[in-house]
Design a protein that fits this description.
- By secondary structure, this protein is α+β, with helices and mostly antiparallel strands.
- It is built from 2 helices and 10 strands.
- The radius of gyration is 23 Å and the shape is elongated.
- About 25% of the residues are buried.
């Protein structure tokens, strides 16, 4: 009788565990919980056995496997940045919520020279490229922008040119 009761409890435990959603992160980590809502850039979920809602960036998540139905939802493809040559793959993020679940690697910076013959838009693009190249050197596919400044005229240098300066924090899986 004890064996039968133990066996029944085992199957009930397996059935309850099968209801758990699995969130597969690009880092290889698997999060067990219940997906509450998928938003444009984030996933809101609860850890298994907890009531507090948590948020994770979709950029950190490969896929979600729903426990109740078994349906698999692909979320994002993993961005692989192997060095400075992959700078075009780097994504610039502007909201702190989009980095949840990613790991901070370091600060990055991109700026144009003090003396340049660029229009404001061209200088801005060059600074952004340098920012992405700096992140790519660290092997990071994401940059959270922390500062985006452009100085024009006498405020930037004695020659009256313009300078674009962008700073951020690089993140990886």
């Amino acid at each position: 009788m004890k064996k039968l009761l133990l066996l029944a409890l085992f199957f009930v435990g397996c059935a309850v565990n099968a209801q758990v959603d699995k969130i597969y992160k690009h880092s290889g980590e698997v999060v067990d919980g219940k997906v509450i809502k998928l938003e444009e850039y984030t996933i809101i979920f609860k850890y298994d056995g907890e009531d507090a809602e948590n948020t994770i960036s979709k950029y950190a998540v490969e896929k979600v496997v729903y426990g109740k139905s078994g349906r698999v939802e692909e979320v994002t493809e993993k961005l692989v940045v192997n060095g400075e040559d992959d700078w075009e793959k780097v994504v610039i993020l502007e909201d702190k919520g989009y980095i949840s679940g990613l790991k901070k690697a370091g600060e990055v910076r991109g700026k144009t020279g003090l003396i340049n013959f660029q229009t404001g838009n061209t200088g801005d693009k060059k600074a952004q490229k340098k920012l992405k190249m700096d992140a790519a050197k660290l092997g990071c596919p994401f940059v959270l922008m922390t500062s985006d400044k452009t100085t024009v005229g006498a405020n930037s240098n004695a020659l009256g040119g313009s300078q674009a300066i962008k700073t951020g924090v690089a993140y990886k899986y």
